[in-house]
């Protein structure tokens, strides 16, 4: 993951604009870099963590269980989500029970359907009734959210992850979807609505305005939160300086 949670980016945080309220949305680090997890914990800049097989593969993870063990050793008591690897209801259910046993702070990511579009709602309902903390992932429609909420029993902490960034990739505004999800979960304080697949830091403020509980950020996006409220005239000067200095370093001439 390029950039990472560097000392420079995290300590250069500009003050928020006068009168700006604190963000209500919780920020989780999304990734599979143990180094980034350690740095996030040391800096106290996140309230939880999420991973998935794609991120683990990109990070060079070879042994999924060993990665999970090492990640749990770094995140303390903060919530962390690991995803099942199965693609049928039986294996999803079995793997979810196994993952849930890795720690009391573990949420198990269960996709809303299999690769063949078979609904996983029966598995989600069974697991949640057993007390497994599920993070239902890859949701992209209001109907999917309503279906998930309908099968989750009261009192069991769960996460409902809507892939807002992928919704936006299709040309649709994700904010109405997120507001609908918040409304559907409003009477269920044990359910957290999560904005997944953000594309830019603006999504943090959109998620906050929508009343979303959690947004996940990669290390690169997390570092950019330091820019909140930055003076734009100074930002303009810094940008010009970057272009100039890179031209000098490159030895360009006309």
Give the gist of this structure:
The protein has 254 residues and is an alpha/beta fold. It has twelve helices and eight strands. The protein has helices spanning 7-11, 34-43, 53-58, 64-75, 89-100, 121-129, 142-151, 164-169, 174-185, 202-210, 219-224, 232-250, and strands at residues 26-30, 48-50, 80-83, 106-111, 134-139, 158-162, 191-195, 214-217.
Compressed to H and E, one letter per element, the order equals: HEHEHHEHEHEHEHHEHEHH
Task: Give the CA-based shape.
Answer: globular
In which range does the helix fraction lie?
40-55%
The beta-strand count equals 8
- The count of helical stretches stands at 12
What percent of residues are in strands? 5-15%
Q: Strands of the largest sheet, in order across it?
A: 1-2-3-4-5-6-7-8
Number of domains: 1
The CATH architecture name reads Alpha-Beta Barrel
Q: How many angstroms separate the termini?
A: 36 Å
Chain-averaged pLDDT: 93
Report the sheet with the most strands, covering strand number, pairing sense and barrel closure. Answer: 8 strands, parallel, barrel
- Cα-based radius of gyration, to the nearest Å: 20 Å
CATH top level class name:
Alpha Beta
Within the CATH hierarchy, at the fold level, what is the topology?
Answer: TIM Barrel
> Based on helices, strands and strand pairing, what is the structural class?
alpha/beta
The named CATH superfamily:
Aldolase class I
Low-pLDDT ranges: 1-15
Main features:
eight-stranded parallel β-barrel, 12 helices, single chain, TIM Barrel
């Amino acid at each position: 993951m390029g950039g990472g949670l560097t000392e420079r980016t995290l300590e250069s945080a500009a003050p928020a604009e006068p009168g700006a309220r604190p963000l209500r949305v919780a920020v989780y680090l999304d990734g599979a870099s143990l180094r980034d997890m350690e740095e996030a914990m040391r800096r106290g800049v996140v309230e939880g963590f999420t991973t998935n097989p794609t991120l683990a593969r990109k990070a060079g993870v070879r042994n999924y269980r060993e990665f999970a063990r090492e990640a749990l050793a770094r995140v303390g008591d903060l919530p962390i989500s690991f995803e099942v690897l199965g693609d049928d209801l039986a294996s999803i259910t079995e793997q979810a029970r196994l993952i849930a046993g890795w720690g009391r702070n573990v949420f198990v990511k269960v996709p809303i359907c299999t690769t063949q579009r078979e609904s996983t709602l029966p598995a989600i309902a069974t697991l949640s009734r057993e007390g497994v903390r599920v993070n239902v992932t890859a949701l992209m429609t209001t109907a999917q959210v309503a279906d998930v909420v309908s099968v989750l029993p009261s009192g069991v902490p769960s996460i409902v992850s809507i892939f807002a960034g992928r919704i936006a990739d299709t040309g649709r505004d994700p904010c109405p979807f997120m507001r609908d999800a918040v409304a559907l979960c409003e009477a269920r304080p044990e359910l957290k609505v999560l904005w997944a697949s953000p594309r830019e830091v603006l999504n943090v403020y959109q998620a906050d305005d929508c009343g979303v509980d959690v947004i996940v950020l990669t290390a690169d996006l997390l570092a950019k939160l330091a820019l909140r409220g930055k003076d734009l005239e100074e930002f303009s000067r810094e940008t010009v300086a970057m272009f100039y200095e890179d031209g000098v370093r490159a030895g360009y001439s006309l």
